[in-house]
């Protein structure tokens, strides 16, 4: 349980609520990232020496992780 007077408070409901629209947008971006990841994996299987396909897969993985990172960022910026 968390009170508002503690300094190491991890529960920030206001930050969570303010971050929801941005998390939804990043969720849509992560769906695009999944599609890019599948295409990048197919390119990597067809031509394993192609370095640009590896970069595309890494970018797609970053897009897939976006909703979690956005919510963590928003909740960290709003005080308890």
TrEMBL record:
Question: Under what name is this protein listed?
Answer: Signaling peptide TAXIMIN 1
Give the InterPro entries listed for this entry: TAXIMIN_1/2
Give the organism the record lists: Morella rubra
Keyword annotations of the record: Membrane, Transmembrane, Transmembrane helix
Question: Lineage of the native species?
Answer: Eukaryota, Viridiplantae, Streptophyta, Embryophyta, Tracheophyta
Q: Does the keyword Membrane apply?
A: yes
Q: Transmembrane among the record's keywords?
A: yes
Show the stretches that span the lipid bilayer: 22-43, 50-74
